[in-house]
Amino acid sequence: MWLNQFLLLGAILFCAGVYGVLARRNGVMVLMSIELILNSVNINLLAFSAYHGNVAGQVFALFIIAVAAAEVGVGLAIVLLIYRNRSTIDLETASLMKG
Amino acid sequence: MTAVVTAADTLVAQNIFFYVIAAVMVFGAIRLVTTKNIVHAALYLVLVLIGVAANFVLTMGEFAAATQVLVYVGAIIVLFLFGIMLTQARIGREVDVDQDKRWVAGLTAALLGAVMVFALVDAFETTDIREGPRVGVEVGSELAVQTTEAVADSIFSDYLIPFEALSLLLLAALIGAIVVARRE
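Above: the input entities. Below: the structure tokens describing the complete assembly.
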């Protein structure tokens, strides 16, 4: 197995996630795309962890999983609050702080 | 002689599995960011997350793979489905889940992808994952499983302070989410 197999897969998933974050206007779908980005990074960490024969990469991946869980909890709470105040989670309408 | 053939066979099997899983993951990721149906998007995310766990197994991270399935597929997807349920009554196709200027996002992602693919191919070419600078292991030998024991030793010695900070972060996120989402 090449190291690049994993890295290129991670790069493709990362780009799909970036497209999702930029192209979606539904708050929940943007959060899902962010999860996609975080996961693509984890693939890279584990691949380098195996390449270097060092568990540090796996430890970092576990940390990222925990941070992602916290991020989804707070993110969904915010989306829920936006929905409660505006009856929509269309991010185009959330432009109060737009200059 | 038999052992050598077996190791090569294993590697071929690993490669076949990798490409099958990678194809499924890329399909799931692209459908995730293009589908009009939000519930379907969550289910495509499950597909990608399981694929990521499979990749963790291929790169010998057994504990990370188990955690991925437990935390992501078990908990975060349920959270997403609850979020979808609470923020919209309609289950089905949505008309306007995408921005009007999608092509800008597509162009950005394509440019980013081109740069990353070029950099990766240029930097690592066809380096085998077993040819890395592993300490105390012969170059090119099979990957060893990174045991849960080794991961635990690492977390609770080298990374103890970050681990404690992470516990505090989770607590803060928990309280923050409750405070933000609570009705007055």
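Note for the figure: The two ends of chain B are 73 Å apart (CA to CA).
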